[in-house]
Design brief:
Layout lengths: L13 H5 L8 E2 L2 E2 L1 E2 L10 H14 L9 H20 L8 E4 L2 H16 L5 E5 L8 H10 L2 E5 L21 E7 L11 H10 L3 E5 L11 H4 L3 E5 L10 E5 L1 H6 L10 E4 L4 E3 L13 H17 L1 H20 L4 E4 L8 E6 L4 H10 L2 E2 L1 E3 L4 H7 L4 E5 L6 H17 L4
This protein binds pyridoxal-5'-phosphate.
């Protein structure tokens, strides 16, 4: 899905936004830092850093339990963040927002609580070949426990696209769940998740969208996507590490049993049995990451002040610019679609190991990532062990990409493969 219609009118001043990120203003190995590892985690603006500092300096207390002023303040801020998260993804109500440690924990929650109650021997769970390990392994664990079967929708080689037209071939015979990523962290493919969910829903199949790479990069509207579940990670969208969101449609969450037991999630506890709160508190056992939730609120405010439509346009410009620049070099193998890609490029330079590319790039001050990117099955499908990846965010510039391409040329020269 390429964002084309309704070009945003107010284009942000990207250069001055960059100043909001103190960490970017530094030298690494004597060179100006170019941070191109945003798909792993994004940097944090001063607004988020200050929010965390203020919370610990003024309001820190445990939530939901106390009656004193600080506890009331912390609880109010915590629940305000839930409302903010609902607005951020256009959930119908804050009760559809469960705070988790991140995308991984959100998917594990669904696999254990929903999967444990609904999946049986002979059922099929449909994933795609481009899924991150966190959208594969929880389903493998569930399949091992229940005797269900995993099925993978294939990609079309290095272009890394799924064939929506053939999806119905996979949605047959006892398929109970379709779980897929919105944006591939290795390929930069942007999947038309609304269309995928629509096809599944028409056959009564439950849907989960992994929005780890998309939530901070483009507008997300869970009602328009029509998914039953959606997972996101705060740290990939300017928020703190260790906090994320599971969106679950109210009627799904209400019917799910708890997945972890402890304080906060109960109504009444006896020596031999307990009763649960309603969703979302039923799924939030123990003291939550209160500062993380409050920091995430600040991140969502920050991103929406810029406008996620603006960010999506900027991402696509940077992604296309980098892809075309690398395409002009000799001996570069590029992964993912040429048109309509997200703001990242995955590549290989002939037989140079991706780790070597990243190690040399680091000496030039360019932070890349090399490896399987938690996509080992995808790498096997592509017939490679790993790729090097440059992933961008709105504070990155085409000037940095020009510099990165010069560094790639230096690496080719260094290894004698240009
Ligand atoms: C597509 C995708 N899904 C899930 C995850 C897991 O996110 P987290 O480690 O924040 O739980 C990632 C992280 O890189 C990702 O890129």
């Amino acid at each position: 899905m390429v964002i084309e219609a309704n070009q945003p009118k107010l284009v942000p001043d990207w250069k001055s936004l960059r100043k909001d990120f103190p960490i970017l203003d530094q030298q690494v190995h004597g060179k100006t830092l170019i941070y191109f590892d945003n798909a792993a985690t994004t940097q944090k603006p001063r607004a988020v850093i200050d929010t965390l500092k203020n919370y610990y300096e003024r309001d820190n207390a445990n939530v939901h339990r106390g009656i004193h002023e600080l506890s009331n303040r912390a609880t109010t801020a915590f629940e305000a963040a839930r409302q903010r998260a609902a607005k951020f993804i256009n959930a119908a109500s804050p009760e559809e927002i469960v705070f988790t440690r991140g995308t991984t924990e959100a998917i594990n929650l669904v696999a254990q609580a929903w999967g444990g109650a609904n999946i049986q021997r002979g059922d099929r769970i449909v994933l795609t070949e481009m899924e991150h390990h966190s959208n594969i392994v929880p389903w493998q664990l569930l399949a091992e426990r229940t005797g269900a079967q995993l099925v993978f929708v294939p990609i079309n080689g290095d272009q890394g696209m799924l064939d929506l037209g053939r999806l119905d071939e996979w949605l047959i015979n006892n398929v109970r769940l379709l779980a897929l990523t919105h944006i591939s962290n290795s390929l930069g493919t942007i999947n038309p998740v609304a269309e995928f969910c629509d096809r599944a829903r028409r056959q009564g199949i439950v849907t989960l969208v992994d929005a780890a790479q998309s939530a901070g990069h483009r507008p997300i509207d869970v009602q328009q996507i029509g998914c039953d579940f959606l997972a996101l990670s705060g740290h990939k969208m300017c928020g703190p590490t260790g906090i994320g969101v599971l969106y679950g449609r109210a009627e799904m969450l209400e019917r799910m049993p708890p997945w972890q037991g402890g304080g906060e999630m109960i109504l009444n506890v006896d020596f031999h049995r307990s009763t649960w709160k309603s969703a979302p508190h039923r799924f939030e056992a123990g003291t939550p990451d209160i500062s993380g939730v409050i920091g995430l609120h600040a991140a969502m405010d920050y991103l929406d002040a810029i406008g996620r439509k603006n960010i999506a346009h900027h991402d696509q410009e940077l992604g296309a610019y980098a892809y075309e620049a690398l395409l002009r070099l000799n001996g570069v193998r590029l992964f993912g679609p040429r048109i309509g890609r997200a703001g990242l490029v995955s590549f290989l330079l002939k037989n140079i190991h991706a780790h070597d590319v990243v190690t040399v790039a680091d000496q030039w001050g360019v932070a890349l990532r090399g490896g399987h990117h938690c996509n080992q099955p995808l790498m096997k499908k592509l017939g490679v062990e790993s790729t090097a990846r440059a992933s961008f965010y709105f504070y990155n510039t085409t000037v940095e990409i020009d510099r990165f391409v010069e560094v790639v040329k230096e690496i080719q020269k260094f290894f004698g493969v240009s």
